[in-house]
Amino acid sequence: MPTTLDRLRRSIEHYPASLVLIVGDVMLDQFVVGKVDRISPEAPVPVVEYERDDYRPGGAANVANNVRALGGNVELVGLTGADSAGQRLRQLLAACGIGSSGLVADPTRRTTTKLRIVTTRNLQVARIDYESDHDASGEAEEQMADHVARLADRAHVILVSDYLKGTITRPIMEKVLAAARTRGIPVLVDPKIPHLQMYAGATLVTPNHHEAEVATHRRIRTAEEAAAAAQLFRERAGCFDVLITRGEHGMCLLNGPDALHYPAVAREVSDVTGAGDTVIATAALSLAAGMSLRDACGVANQAAGIAVGKFGAATVSQDELLTALIEASRQESRRG
Predict the structure, then answer these.
(1) CA-to-CA distance for 119 and 191, rounded, in angstroms?
(2) CA nearest 189: which of 177, 176, 202?
(3) How far is CA 50 from CA 34, 119, 176, 222, 234, in A?
(4) What one-character-per-residue DSSP string does 248-270 give?
(5) Domain 4-335 - what CATH class?
(6) Which of 16, 116, 205, 220 has the fewest CB within 10 Å, making it most exposed?
(7) According to the model, what pLDDT value does residue 121 have?
(8) From CA 88, how far away is CA 93, in angstroms rounded?
(9) pLDDT tens column, 296-328
């Protein structure tokens, strides 16, 4: 009888044969990095001495980057502007090996860009957002729907990454669900509460604890409260299962009638930015590789523990994940 670790390792070895289709709001993350040695004489703000610019895929593109970093294959459907930021994002995706044939350049909007001014010690000074968040419509929406139908034919799972920036409209979500039903594959959704009713029929929806509280009008402070909120969230969203990410309190999975609680992995926390992206990316890829939902969420919990130890919207490698799972297995054996 193979051990749990052996079973997980075999599934992880199938990551490179798995394809995740991600539909969502892509972004460009820009970091202006510099030193801070003094306060401005003009106003009580730090003076940042410029050193360099860093660019990373953000939003749904960061989810895609997480899948790719773990060794999986990924295709993106989303919107950019017909601008230099959109071109730079495509270049970044190509460099990462992420399929971007499903991206639509809409000249009526700008590419969502989050510009962060940070110090060389990774302290954020300010953030500037460039965005157009009106819903996609007309030709842009039709093109995305066509891309969903085309790319779903090869996908093992579809992941919806909703940031309320205009990509996830009701027709797009209906196209995603219809394509998944035709293929018999799961749909995972990282939600935004104003779109809750759109997700009916999804396999798994992954709100964070704040989103779950807003959607259910319940406080979540204990594992029991998280399980009760997950049940109510499932009823209101009309989805099959719910995973509530609870930060330092771990995660709560409502799978069928059962609630499972995954304790947070005890690591030094550097930055929680993008941890939710890591969770859903890892869970989706693990499902695509043949894991059960419970195993996939357990592996995603380990991946999140690694990601929060890094600065910014970080990714996790397959080797890092396997090392964490081996250590977790050893700790479990010692406790047993």
Answers:
(1) 31
(2) 202
(3) 4, 9, 43, 45, 48
(4) GG-EEEEETTEEEEEPPP----S
(5) alpha beta
(6) 16
(7) 86
(8) 9
(9) 999 999 999 998 877 666 789 999 999 989 988
SS3 assignment, position 75: strand
d(CA 226, CA 199): 20
Pairing mode of beta strands 258-262, 251-255: antiparallel
Alpha-helix runs per DSSP H in 100-247 = 138-152, 170-183, 209-216, 223-237
241 is catalytic: no
Mean pLDDT for the chain?
93
Q: What is the side-by-side strand order in the sheet with 187-190?
A: 99-106, 73-81, 19-24, 157-161, 187-190, 204-205, 241-245, 251-255, 258-262
- Dist CA 326 CA 30 (whole Å): 35
| Active-site position among 25, 37, 277, 295 | 277
Inter-residue contact 23 to 148 (CB < 8 Å): yes
Tokens, residue 115: 């510009």
Share of the chain above pLDDT 70, in %: 95
Q: Yes or no: say if 204 and 189 are a contact pair by the CB < 8 Å rule.
A: yes
Residue 2 confidence class, pLDDT cut points 50, 70, 90: low
The predicted-structure confidence for 111-152, as pLDDT tens digits, reads as follows 999 999 999 888 899 999 999 999 999 999 999 999 999 999
Tokens matching residue 103: 């991206």
Cβ atoms of residues 130 and 83 within 8 Å: no
Q: What is the DSSP letter of 67?
A: H
Q: What is the pLDDT of residues 246-273, one digit of tens each?
A: 988 999 999 999 999 999 885 665 555 6
Rg (CA), the chain: 20
